[in-house]
């Protein structure tokens, strides 16, 4: 029986949808099937053929304009001119690896480290978040002397052998490592038993104890502080600190995976973990760093990094190359110059308020929660029992795509949470488009 991945298959084109496609879309999907491996997935029952992007908008091959409410790869906006110019200028000068001296990587590292807690004072670079998390796991194991890694129930941390073994969101077809342990997601919507921070810290301790009982030494806890794959769980602010205290009390390392909540996304802070008043031992990041140019990074406390780097050389051919660093520099420039952290906080508050107002009109909206421009929109069939409604969520994203030209997708263990995560270029007028589309689409689907 075919297995399903909660992040890859929940909103996915499949062969049974092919007969409903127009001729040109069918030609392209058939060609993909013929020339690309079967592991690839397309969004939507009717896939979108995109040809252009600008800011928070995208255009398809027929010239239709879409609102991108999902993309944190082009975090500061599709085709941002500052990034295009920086990459173009550097490509005309030099692009090589980090075994030659080059000032850009040094200047960028000083700027990036200045955004982190003072204790985090070393940087390394790769191309993808998977590579960054892979190295972080190796580093955590080197520092702690253990092998056991704890992640949340629906976590996604990458596609390498190490990271896929810590990524339950990849589905039952991808086995977890024997040294991986899972904790339930910190679901404040459904949690009824006292303080969420105390409860979550107890879940961490329980898994550390289980590791010990099975002869596995604890190495660390790897978490995305907004728990995006678990269904977007950012609150209450500060709840994560008690869990990190438990990690440290047991000799482990806390790895903050900032690929999704980092780079001003939450509005409250530059880094997602900073909302919780914690200092990670290792910070990993990727997608939003280069606004579409492949670049990722790992920041760490010097003692933690030294446990690995003093013994094992590390080299990544494309990691930290001058073009990638130029793109990354430009992203930091834009975040500062356009005040995107404050913008994300303001737009996020406005959007959250409008979405929460919809709850009075549609009882199928069980919860709306978020931080900055990262919002979870949860759909239920019974608001009292909080019964997840996956089918409505899937129908809703199709209705948004087909009738309202709004692009987003779903998250969470039940596939019933819309992950609303637009580029930071998102503006007040886009709130009307997005909220109006959700209102009309739900009204249509619930008739």
TrEMBL record:
<dbReference type="GO" id="GO:0030170">
    <property type="term" value="F:pyridoxal phosphate binding"/>
</dbReference>
<protein>
    <submittedName>
        <fullName>Aspartate aminotransferase family protein</fullName>
    </submittedName>
</protein>
<dbReference type="InterPro" id="IPR049704">
    <property type="entry name" value="Aminotrans_3_PPA_site"/>
</dbReference>
<comment type="similarity">
    <text>Belongs to the class-III pyridoxal-phosphate-dependent aminotransferase family.</text>
</comment>
<dbReference type="InterPro" id="IPR015422">
    <property type="entry name" value="PyrdxlP-dep_Trfase_small"/>
</dbReference>
<dbReference type="GO" id="GO:0008483">
    <property type="term" value="F:transaminase activity"/>
</dbReference>
<keyword id="KW-0032">Aminotransferase</keyword>
<keyword id="KW-0808">Transferase</keyword>
<keyword id="KW-0663">Pyridoxal phosphate</keyword>
<dbReference type="InterPro" id="IPR015421">
    <property type="entry name" value="PyrdxlP-dep_Trfase_major"/>
</dbReference>
<dbReference type="InterPro" id="IPR015424">
    <property type="entry name" value="PyrdxlP-dep_Trfase"/>
</dbReference>
<dbReference type="Pfam" id="PF00202">
    <property type="entry name" value="Aminotran_3"/>
</dbReference>
<dbReference type="InterPro" id="IPR005814">
    <property type="entry name" value="Aminotrans_3"/>
</dbReference>
């Amino acid at each position: 029986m075919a297995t399903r991945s909660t992040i890859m298959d929940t909103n996915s084109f499949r062969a049974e949808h092919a007969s409903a496609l127009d001729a040109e879309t069918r030609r392209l999907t058939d060609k993909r099937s013929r020339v690309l491996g079967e592991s690839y997935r397309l969004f939507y029952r009717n896939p979108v053929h995109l040809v252009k992007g600008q800011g928070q908008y995208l255009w398809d091959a027929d010239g239709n304009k879409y609102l991108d409410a999902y993309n944190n790869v082009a975090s500061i906006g599709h085709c941002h001119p500052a990034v295009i110019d920086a990459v173009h200028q550097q490509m005309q000068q030099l692009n090589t690896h980090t075994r030659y001296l080059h000032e850009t990587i040094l200047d960028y590292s000083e700027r990036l480290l200045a955004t982190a807690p003072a204790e985090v004072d070393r940087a390394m670079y790769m191309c993808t978040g998977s590579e960054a998390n892979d190295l972080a796991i190796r580093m955590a194991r080197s520092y702690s002397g253990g092998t056991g890694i704890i992640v949340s129930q629906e976590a996604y941390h990458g596609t390498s052998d190490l990271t896929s073994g810590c990524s339950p969101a990849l589905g039952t077809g991808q086995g977890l490592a024997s040294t991986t342990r899972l904790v339930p997601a910190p679901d404040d919507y459904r949690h009824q038993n006292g303080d969420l921070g105390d409860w979550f810290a107890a879940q961490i301790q329980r898994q550390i104890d289980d590791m010990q009982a099975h002869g596995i030494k604890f190495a660390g806890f790897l978490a995305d502080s907004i728990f995006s794959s678990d269904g977007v769980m950012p609150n209450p602010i500060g709840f994560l600190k008690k869990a990190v205290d438990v990690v440290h009390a047991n000799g482990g390392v806390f790895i903050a995976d900032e690929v999704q909540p980092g780079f001003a996304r939450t509005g409250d802070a530059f880094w997602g973990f900073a909302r919780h008043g914690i200092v990670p031992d290792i910070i990993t990041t990727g997608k939003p760093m280069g606004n579409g140019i492949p670049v990722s990074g790992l920041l760490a406390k010097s003692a933690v990094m030294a446990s690995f780097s003093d013994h094992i050389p590390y080299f990544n051919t494309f990691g930290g190359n001058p073009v990638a660093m130029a793109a990354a520099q430009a992203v930091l420039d834009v975040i500062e110059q356009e005040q995107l952290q404050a913008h994300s906080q303001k737009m996020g508050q406005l959007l959250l308020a409008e979405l929460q107002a919809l709850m009075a009109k549609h009882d199928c909206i069980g919860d709306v929660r978020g931080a900055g421009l990262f919002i979870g929109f949860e759909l239920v069939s019974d608001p009292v029992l909080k019964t997840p409604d996956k089918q409505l969520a899937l129908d809703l994203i199709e209705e948004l795509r087909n009738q309202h030209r709004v692009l987003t997708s779903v998250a969470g263990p039940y596939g019933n949470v819309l992950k609303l995560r637009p580029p930071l270029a998102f503006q007040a007028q886009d709130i009307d488009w997005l909220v109006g589309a959700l209102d009309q689409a739900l009204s249509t689907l619930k008739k």
